[in-house]
Amino acid sequence: VSTELSQGCARGCDLCSEFNGCLRCSPKLFILLERNDIRQIGICLPSCPLGYFGLRNTDMNKCIKCKIENCESCFSRNFCTKCKEGLYLHKGRCYVTCPEGYAAANGTMECSSPAQCEMSEWGPWGPCSKKRKLCGFKKGNEDRTRRILQAPSGDVSLCPATTEVRRCTVQKNQCPEGKRKKKEEQGKQDNGNRNRKDTKDTKSGTKKRKNRQRGATVPATAASPAQ
């Protein structure tokens, strides 16, 4: 068993052993454990090397190995900041090609978001419609559009949608042809009522004339004087 020492340690190491190297580093330094055959050798570093990230604790700062596949440098155990050569970085992971809908930005190996497309302002909302009709309904849809001003790598398929649709509600609005039809039907109904009234009045007048004729008396003829 190796004896722990506080004297004769390497620079920046506060406590060490002959068998395991540094056991505790000076404040602000990170301890990195390197495997050498069956031994782990501790060394003190001002910053962690590639493939590791620094984790600061109150007792001791440590260099911890990245757990992300094909990662060369990481921010935390599960978030990569630089992939190995030839691989693309996207949201802390490494890929052979950028995921669908993304592309490498400005010649780098980092996949850019579609949000980096330069888009125009949204235009005004269009009229509320339903099945290409603008009347005769209560709930429909309205849309608005915008243009793509500039796309990364010139690929417009990476940009967000240029059309937006939302539900809309309008006051119940009858179509003009419906109004004309209803007006015509109303006119026919009024004419029918008028005709029925005229027929009724005609029948009533005829009945009155018949009643007057039935109730009239024949005037008496004067008797001739006796001869």
From TrEMBL:
> Which residues are in the Spondin-like TSP1 domain?
117-172
Q: Where is the composition biased (Basic and acidic residues)?
A: 183-204
Annotated localization: Nucleus; Secreted
Q: Which InterPro entries does this one have? A: Furin_repeat, Growth_fac_rcpt_cys_sf, R-spondin, Rspo_Fu-CRD_dom, TSP1_rpt, TSP1_rpt_sf, TSP1_spondin_dom
Question: Mind telling me which GO cellular component terms the entry cites?
Answer: extracellular region; nucleus
A Gene Ontology annotation in the biological process aspect, one of them, is: regulation of macromolecule metabolic process
| Region span, Disordered | 173-227
PROSITE patterns to which the protein is assigned, alphabetical: TSP1
**Is the keyword GTP-binding assigned to this protein?**
no
Gene3D superfamilies, sorted = Hormone Receptor, Insulin-like Growth Factor Receptor 1, Chain A, domain 2, Thrombospondin type-1 (TSP1) repeat
Q: Which GO terms describe its molecular function?
A: heparin binding; signaling receptor binding
* Entry keywords, A to Z: Disulfide bond, Glycoprotein, Heparin-binding, Nucleus, Repeat, Secreted, Sensory transduction, Signal, Wnt signaling pathway
Q: Where is the R-spondin Fu-CRD domain?
A: 11-111
Q: What is the superkingdom listed in this entry's lineage?
A: Eukaryota
Matching Pfam families: Furin-like_2 (PF15913), TSP1_spondin (PF19028)
Which function does this protein serve?
A: Activator of the canonical Wnt signaling pathway by acting as a ligand for LGR4-6 receptors. Upon binding to LGR4-6 (LGR4, LGR5 or LGR6), LGR4-6 associate with phosphorylated LRP6 and frizzled receptors that are activated by extracellular Wnt receptors, triggering the canonical Wnt signaling pathway to increase expression of target genes. Also regulates the canonical Wnt/beta-catenin-dependent pathway and non-canonical Wnt signaling by acting as an inhibitor of ZNRF3, an important regulator of the Wnt signaling pathway. Acts as a ligand for frizzled FZD8 and LRP6.
PANTHER family named among the record's database cross-references: NEUROHYPOPHYSIAL HORMONES, N-TERMINAL DOMAIN CONTAINING PROTEIN, R-SPONDIN-1
**Entry similarity comment:** Belongs to the R-spondin family.
Please state what the protein is called: R-spondin-1
Say which species the protein is native to.
Leptocoma aspasia
Upper lineage ranks? Eukaryota, Metazoa, Chordata, Craniata, Vertebrata
